[in-house]
Design goal:
Keywords: Cell membrane, Membrane, Transmembrane, Transmembrane helix, Transport. It is a multi-pass membrane protein. The structure is a single chain. The protein contains 16 helices and three strands. A three-stranded antiparallel sheet has the order 1-3-2, with no helix packed on it. It folds into two domains: 231 residues, MetI-like fold; 47 residues, no CATH class. With 394 residues, the chain is an all-alpha fold.
Length: 394
C-alpha cells in the first residue's frame, strides 16, 4: 500500500492552514471554556437575579458570597491551571529539563516551597479559618512563648505569672490592639496577596503582550505613536491617580488592582516589543514568511511562544512591586481598611512597637519572605527557561 508523500516545507499552503485553524481550539482552550462559561453564568446570576444581601451560593446551601474580585481571581486561577500547569504535564520531557535547571538554584527551591504554602493557604485557609474579628477585651494578647505586662491587657487569655500575661495557642501569633487574631489575619492576607498578584499580573500581561506585539509588527508611524503612548503611561503618576479615584469612589481592593494594572503594563509592552523585534529577525521566522504564513500565525505560533519564557520571568518580578505598593498605601492609611491584608496588619501595630512589636513584625516578616521568594523565583526561572540570557550576562 502506497503512502502519501509528505509536503516539503516550501510547498505548504500556510494561508490555507491559517484559515482552517483560525478557530481551532486546543484541549487547553476547550477545558478553559468548559469551566469559564459556568463561572460566567454564576456571575450573571449573581449580578442580575440574586438580591445584594443574598450570598451567591446560597441556592446550593453554601453561605459564600462571591465578589467581583473573587470572580476575577477564580478566572485567573483557571488561566494559570490550563495554560501554565497543564502544559507542564502535557510535556513531561521539557518539564523535567526545566526542573533540573531550576533546582540548581537552592534558594529558589526554598522560595517555591514558601510560595506554595502562601498559595495553598490563600486558597484553602479561608474555608477553615474565619476572618479576624474585633474583640477589644482580648487586645494585645502575646504570641505563644512570649509575654506582655499585664497592665496592657484587659483580659489575659493565657496564664498570668509575675505580672506578665503569657501567650496561648488560642492566639498562636497574638492579637492586635482591637483583638483581631494575627494568625487568621496572616491566612486571609495570603488570599489578598494572591488576588493582587494573579489578577494584576494577568491584566498587565494581556495588555502588555498585545500592545507590544502589535507595535513591533505594525512598524512605521503606528509603532512610533504606540511607543510614545507607552512613554506617557510609564511617566504618569500612578499614586496621584489612585488618590484621585480614592477621593471620588473610595478605597477598595478592586480599585487598587485596576489602577495599578492600568499603569503598570507599559514596561511589559516595551519589553515584549523589543523581544518580538529580536525574534522576528531569526531565520525560522523569515522562512515562515517566505513560505506564505500569515502575520497572525507567525506571531501566535512562533513569536509569542519563543518570547514566553522571558515574559513569564519579567511578570514574576512585577508581583513584589504590587504587594509592596498595597502595604505602603495601607501603612499610610490609604488602603481599604475592610480587607485583612498584611499591609493593614502592619498599619494596625505601627503605634504599638514599643510594647507589642509582634503586631508589625509577624506580617512584616511574612511580607518580606514573600517578596524575597518572588525575586529568587524570577531569577531561577530566567536561568531555567531562558539559558541564553544567562550566557549573555556571564
Amino acid at each position: 500500500m502506497a503512502t502519501q508523500k509528505p509536503e516539503r516545507f516550501d510547498q505548504v499552503d500556510w494561508n490555507n492552514i491559517s484559515r482552517s485553524r483560525w478557530f481551532d481550539l486546543s484541549i487547553n482552550s476547550i477545558g478553559m471554556l468548559a469551566t469559564a462559561v459556568p463561572l460566567l453564568l454564576v456571575a450573571l446570576s449573581d449580578w442580575q437575579i440574586l438580591d445584594e444581601r443574598t450570598p451567591t451560593l446560597e441556592p446550593i446551601g453554601l453561605e459564600w458570597d462571591i465578589g467581583t474580585v473573587d470572580y476575577l481571581f477564580i478566572f485567573t486561577l483557571l488561566l494559570f491551571a490550563f495554560y501554565i500547569v497543564l502544559p507542564l504535564f502535557q510535556n513531561p520531557r521539557r518539564t523535567k529539563y526545566y526542573w533540573r535547571e531550576f533546582k540548581r538554584n537552592r534558594p529558589a527551591v526554598v522560595s517555591l516551597g514558601w510560595l506554595a504554602i502562601v498559595f495553598v493557604g490563600g486558597i484553602v485557609g479561608p474555608f477553615f479559618i474565619s476572618a479576624p474579628e474585633q474583640s477589644i477585651l482580648t487586645g494585645y494578647q502575646p504570641p505563644v512563648f512570649l509575654s506582655i505586662d499585664q497592665s496592657y491587657v484587659s483580659t489575659c487569655v493565657g496564664e498570668i505569672a509575675t505580672g506578665q500575661c503569657h501567650g496561648t495557642w488560642q492566639h498562636p501569633l497574638g492579637t492586635t490592639a482591637g483583638g483581631k487574631d494575627i494568625f487568621a489575619g496572616i491566612v486571609h492576607g495570603m488570599t489578598i496577596s494572591m488576588q493582587i498578584g494573579f489578577i494584576t499580573t494577568t491584566i498587565v500581561a494581556s495588555i502588555g503582550i498585545t500592545f507590544g506585539t502589535v507595535s513591533a509588527y505594525a512598524g512605521g508611524w503606528a509603532d512610533e505613536l504606540m511607543m510614545r503612548f507607552v512613554d506617557i503611561v510609564l511617566s504618569f503618576p500612578t499614586l496621584l491617580m489612585f488618590l484621585l479615584i480614592l477621593y471620588i469612589y473610595g478605597a477598595g481592593l478592586g480599585m487598587f488592582i485596576l489602577v495599578f494594572a492600568a499603569f503598570a503594563w507599559g514596561g511589559t509592552a516595551r519589553y515584549v516589543r523589543s523581544k518580538s523585534l529580536s525574534i522576528s529577525e531569526e531565520e525560522f521566522i523569515k522562512a515562515n514568511r517566505i513560505s506564505g504564513a500569515s502575520t497572525y500565525r507567525v506571531v501566535r505560533r512562533h513569536v509569542v511562544p519563543n518570547a514566553a519564557s522571558s515574559i513569564i520571568t519579567q511578570l514574576t518580578l512585577l508581583i513584589p512591586g504590587f504587594l509592596l505598593a498595597e502595604a505602603q498605601l495601607a501603612f499610610l492609611g490609604l488602603g481599604d481598611s475592610t480587607i485583612p491584608s498584611w499591609g493593614q496588619l502592619i498599619s494596625a501595630g505601627r503605634s504599638d512597637l514599643s510594647f507589642a512589636p509582634w503586631i508589625v513584625l509577624v506580617p512584616g516578616i511574612v511580607l518580606f519572605l514573600t517578596i524575597l521568594a518572588f525575586n529568587f523565583l524570577g531569577d531561577a526561572l530566567l536561568d531555567a527557561l531562558n539559558p541564553e540570557a544567562e550566557a549573555e550576562s556571564a
